[in-house]
Amino acid sequence: MRKNWPTPIKLAVAFLTAVPLLVAMPPPASADDVAPSTVKINEVESNGGTPGDWVELVNTGAAPVDVSGWVVKDNDDSHAFTIAAGTTMGAGAFLALDVDPVFGLGSADSARLYLADGTTLVDSYTWTAHAATTYGRCPDGTGAFVTTTSSTKGAANDCGSPSSVVKINEVESNGGTPGDWVELVNTGAVPVDVSGWVVKDNDDTHVFTIAAGTTVAAGAFLALDVEAAFGLGSADSARLYLADGTTLVDSYTWTAHAATTYGRCPDGTGAFVTTTAPTKGAANDCGTPSSVVKINEVESNGGTPGDWVELVNTGAAPVDVSGWIVKDNDDTHVFTVAAGTTMAAGGFLALDVDPVFGLGSADSARLYLPDGTTLVDSYSWTSHAATTYGRCPDGSGAFVTTTAPTKGAANDCGTPSSVVKINEVESDGGTPGDWVELVNTGVAAVDVSGWVVKDNDDTHAFTIAAGTTMAAGAFLALDVDPVFGLGGADSARLFLPGGTTLVDSYSWTSHAATTYGRCPDGTGQFVTTTAPTKGAANACPGQVSTSPWPGGAAVATADDANVFGTNMSGLAYEASGGATPGVLWAVKNGPGTLYRLEWDGTKWTPSTTDGWNTGKQLHYPDGTGDPDSEGVTLTAAGLAGGVFVSTERDNGNSGVSRPEVLRFDPSGTAAGLTATKEWNLTADLPAVGANSGLEAISWVPDSFLTSHGFVDEHTGKAYDPGSYPGHGDGLFFVGLEANGTVYAYALDQNGGGFTRVATIATGFPGVMDLQFEPETNHLWAVCDDTCNGRTATLDIDADGKFTVSHVYERPGSMANLNNEGFAIAPQAECVDGHKPVFWSDDSNDDGHALRSGTLDCTVVDLDADDDGIDDDVDVTFPPGTSHADDPANQTFSDAVLGGTTSGSILSRGGRTLTVSDAHTPGGILVNVGAGSVPAQFQLAGSGATIKLGRGSYKLTGSGKTSTVTTVDGEQAVVTVSVNGTPITLTVGEGGSVTYTEASAGGKVTGLSGIRQTGTVSVRADGVPATACTGIAIENVIVATTGNNQISGTAGDDLILGRGGNDTVNGNGGSDCVVTGSGNDTITTAGGDDWIDAGGGNNVVRAGAGANTVATASGNDQITTGDGDDTVNAGGGNNTVTTGGGNDAIATGSGNDTVDCGAGSDAAQAGGGNNANVGTRCETFGR
Fold first, then answer.
1. Rounded distance, CA 769 to CA 784, Å?
2. Pair (660, 705) in one structural domain
3. 954: left (phi > 0), else alpha (psi -120 to 50), else beta?
4. Is-contact 780 762, C-beta < 8 A?
5. Does 1164 reside within a domain?
6. Neighbouring residues of 20: CB distance < 8 A, sequence distance ≥ 6
7. What residue spans of 177-307 are helical by DSSP H?
8. How many domains does the chain have?
C-alpha cells in the first residue's frame, strides 16, 4: 500500500532477525572489506504485510556485513529508508526492513538497495503487480524472483516442496497419441527432480516409474506415456507417488472417458474438467471467453416481457461478460451487458434486448466483445419461430425451433416420448386396410424402431420395423391391418419398445366417416377430418387451402438501392383518379417517419416539395416522442380527412407497449408532423409485448358494411353507423402482430373515444398489413415471412362476419421477404388485365425496401358453377375469360401468354385441383387439395409421370426439358422409365428439379442436365436408398442389355449396368455406378464415387476421392486412388489396393490380399488366408 509522508521518519531500530551471537565472532567487516554483492534483496511484501510493506535482505557471503546507514528506496528517489546504525548481518542471515512508516510499495514499483552514500546501487527488483503472496528469490539470494508459496518474513523463502508443487494436470484415457498418458505440472518456483516417482491407475500392481534424471522446470509440463505399463479405463484413476511408491502426491478419479481429456482449469490449481481439446505437454485448453460463450436461444416474437437473447457458458470456468455487446442486423442497435455480469461455468444468461431494440421476423442476433467489433457468435433467421430458436444440444448444437421457450435455462429440445404423437387413425375402408399415423412434433429426428402400436387388446401388438426413423415434422403411416383390425369402438395406443411405457393414445366409439385426426397436426384435439391424408398433414374442418397468387409471378424492385434502409413498414395508395400513377404513402417504424412517394417512370422516390425530401418525423399530440409507426391508411375523404397511422410503442420508451391510432394532417411544409388526434387502444386489446402491437390498419366504408349485412358484435345486431356519432363514414380495421387478429373500431373523430365493433380471426400468427379493395370488396390481410409471404382475403359471410375466403401464396418469383406493407392500385390503372400492387420490406433485403407486382384486374371466379367449391380445373387462359368446368377436359396450356408449357391431367386422385398460368411465359401453377391418392400430371413431350400431393406446385416444360417445383406442401414425385428402369426424382417443399429427357423409338433413353435446388433426391428402382449418398446426380445413363460398353460424362452421373460383363468408364465427376452379376470392369476418374459392382470377377479402378466401393462374391481386383475410401469386398479371393488416405476395408471369406497406401488404414479381413502387404494396413484383423 503506497503512503506519502510529508516528512520522512527514519527509525533508529529496524526489525532485525538474526541468529544470536553466542560464540566469539570476528569483528564485522566494513563495506570496503566485503563485496556489496554478497548482500541481496531476497523477498518483497508490497500488499497486506504485517505490520505493513517490507523488504527482506539476505547475506549470501561467509562473513558478517555491517549494513549501518545503507538505504532502501522504491521507484521514487525521494522515498528513502535508512538502516539503523549498528546493524550487522551474519553470514547467511536474513534482515526484514519495515519500510511502510517511510513509504509504501505500490502494485507497480521497485525495491532498490544502496550503500550508505545513497547513490551506489547494491541490488534491485521491479514488479508490475502485487504478488498473491510475496516476491522472493528461489533459491534464496541467488535465484530469480518468483511468486512464493507463502510469505516468510525474515526467514528462508517458501519455494514449495516437491510434493506440494508437482500436480497431475491432464489425463488422456482414450485415443491418445500414441496411447494413454498422464501429464504433470510443476506449479513451484524452482525445478523439481521427479526421478523414480511413480504413477499408478486404480490398481496398485500397475506401476509406471519416471526415468532417472527427469527434472520438471518451474512452471513446466511433463507428459508421461503410461500405456507401456498399463492402460487407463473409462472408470479409473491416475495417482502420483514419491519414489517410495507409498507417499501420495496427487490423484484424480473419473467415471467415464472424456470426449477430449480431463484437465485442471486453470493449470495446476483448478478443478478437473473436460478440456476443449487435448494439449499433451502444454497448458490446458480451457477455452477462451470468446470461444466458450455462445448464443443459445433467441425469442423474437411475443416474449416476456419482450424480445430476448440467451447466452450459455460452455466452458469450465466463470466468464466475466461485463460490457459485451449484443446487436441485431443493424449496427446502430446496441445492447450492452451490465458491468459486474459474470456467467458461471455451464450457466445461462437471458438478456432482455427489447428496451433497446426489437428482433424482427428476418433478423440476426450478434454477440461481440466490449470493443463492439470482435464477433463472438451470431445467429440469423428468416421468420419468427413458433416458439424460440435454440441450440440442441445447448451450446454446441445447431439452431432449431424449440419445443417451448426456456428463458435462462436449458433448451427444450423434446424427448422422443414427448414429441411423437398419434396424429390420424383410419379404422374402416383404408388403403390397403386400417392404419395409424404418427407425427414427430419435435425439432430432431426420432428413432422409433421397436415401438409398439396396440388397439384396445394387449394381445394385438404391431411392432415398428428396425431402422425406422422419423425426421423432424415428418409423418409415418403404419399399416396395422396385417396384425389386427381397428373396430368401430376401439383404441390406438403407442408404446415405447417393450410395449409397456405408453407414449400416446386415442379412443373412439364409432368409425369416422373419413378418419380421426388431430387439428392442428400433432397438438390439436382429435376430430373427424374432411378427407384421409395418410402420411401427410391432416385435412381439418374449416381449413382453407392455399392458392397461387392471383396475379403475375414477376416481382421487381421499385426504389433506388439503399435509399430507405431498414424498418419500412406500412403502405397506402392515394389514387390519381385516372390511369396515371398516384401517390404511395409509406411509414417507417424507427424512427417514426411518414414518406410521400411519387413515381418517376421507373421507381418510387420521395417527393421533393414541401419538405418531403427525406420524409417527415412523426410525434404524439403533445409534440414529443417517436411513435413506432407500422401501418398507414386514408379514408374516402382523402388527405383532407387526414393520414391515419397505427403504432406499437414510443421508441423513446421502447419497453412499454402503446398500441395507438394517430391522425396527422400532411399539409404544410414543416419538417415534422404532430398528431392531431390520438386513440390509445391499450385497455381494449390483449396485453402484448412492446414490439408486438398494432402493425396494420385499413379503413372500410360504412356503405359496403351495411350493404353486405355486417354484424356489430358490440350490439349483436346489424351494424348501424348511426350508433356511433362522430365516427365518420367508415370503420378502422387494425391488425395485431402478437395474435394475428383484426379488430374493427368506430373512432370518434371529434372527442377521441372509440368502440370495438368486431373481432376477426385471420388464421395467421401475425398480421402485418391490411388493405380494403373496393373493386372486389375483399379485405386483404398480409402475413410476412413467418407465413412464407402468404396473403388472405376476408369477406363477409352469411352470418355477417368477416371470414377467410382465400389464402394465396406469394408471387412465384418473390423470395420469402419480411414484407410488412402492402398496397393495391385502383382498377383505373389496369394494363392488359393487371393492375399494380406494392410491398414494403422491413429488412431492406438486397438494399431495397419497395417491390412491385401485379394483381388480376378482372376477378378470377374459381367457382364458375357457384357450388361453393373451386372448379376442378381452370384451363382457359388468361384468367378473366370463361372457365371450363368439365371433368373430361384434362389438358392445359399457357400458349395464350406465349408460354411453352402444356400437358394433361392423368388422374385427379379424388382431389380438388386448380390449374392456372403463371402470368409470364414461365409455366403452370397447380394447387392440389386434400386426398389420399396423389394427383397425376404429364407434360407434353415428356415420358415422366408427375405425382402431386396436397400443396402448391409449378410445372414448366419446353420440348424435352421440364422443371418441377414444390412451392409449398407435400413432395412432388417424378417417375420416368429410362430404358425400362424406373427413375424417381423426389422434390421436397421449397425444392426444384430440372431435367432433359433423351428419347429414341418412343421411349426415354437417358436424363441429362439435371439441376437440383433445395431438397431433391434421384433414385433408381432396385438400387438401395443409401446409394449415391452425397452425390447430386446430373445425368442418368442406363444400359439396354448385358455386356455393355458404357461411358459417363464429366459431370456427376448415375450409371446403371445390366447383367453380363459390363465395361464402365465414369469419365470424371462424382459418379454412382451400379452393375449386375457378371465380370465387370469399372473405371472412374477424380470424384467421390459410389460403386456397387455386384457378383462376378470384377475389376474396379476408382480414382482419387472419397470413394465407396462394394462387390459381391467373386474374385475381385479393387484399386482406389488417394482419398478416404470405404471398400467392402464380398467372398472370394480378392485383391484390394488403396492409395493415400484413411481407408476402411472389409473383405468376406476367401484368401484376400490387402495393400494399404499412406494414411491410417483399417482392414477387417474375413475367414481365409489373408495377407497384409508390407504390414502397411495399420489395423489388420478379423
1. 9
2. yes
3. beta
4. no
5. no
6. none
7. 289-292
8. 6
